[in-house]
Amino acid sequence: MHHPLFDALETQLSTRPPQALRMPGLVLREAAVLVPLLLRDGEPQVLFTKRPTTLRHHAGQYSFPGGSRDAVDPTPLQTALRETREELGIDVTGVRVLGALDEVPTLGGSGFRIQPFVGVLPQGLEYKPNPMEVEFIVEVPLAHLMEPTAHRTEPHRSRGVEYEVDFYTYGSHVIWGATGRILRHLLSLTRALSQP
């Protein structure tokens, strides 16, 4: 649970309020995700889920546990934790929430504004993924994601606007889209904390 990087991230996120999206004229549905960190053999890992190809939105993509905010969720954080519990089949009461990252939009047709929260999962959890929402779970070493060779960008166009899409590769796994943008923000903070 405790690692110097997690402590430093918590301090950094507590001193820097997350940026809200400013997209005038665009009505986006609220969503929230948990960016799950954990320690495996003392090394920080980032957890991703692969979505089944049968889903309506972002089928077959890698994502963080999360989803749209329901009326029962008093806060976006509650959304992220509820969805994590439902998708991974774990008890989320022991999750150490380090803070929030900047909101990101989904730029396809799904139209969500996503509030990401960074949280550390307790040691020794046994995942029981919901097969309706999760095809499988992959843990990726944070050190691998920090390697320049793991990351590339490609230009993309949506609604007449050109922007860069981030792709992160781990073996046969390719992480991109809104998840890639959230990951890029997390990694930029982590790099800044790792500088001597």
From TrEMBL:
Keywords: Hydrolase, Magnesium, Manganese, Metal-binding. One of its GO terms (molecular function) is metal ion binding. SUPFAM superfamilies: Nudix. This is Coenzyme A pyrophosphatase. The keyword Magnesium applies. Pfam families: NUDIX. Residues 28-162 form the Nudix hydrolase domain. Its cofactor is Mn(2+); Mg(2+). It comes from Cystobacter ferrugineus. InterPro entries: CoAse, NUDIX_hydrolase-like_dom_sf, NUDIX_hydrolase_dom.
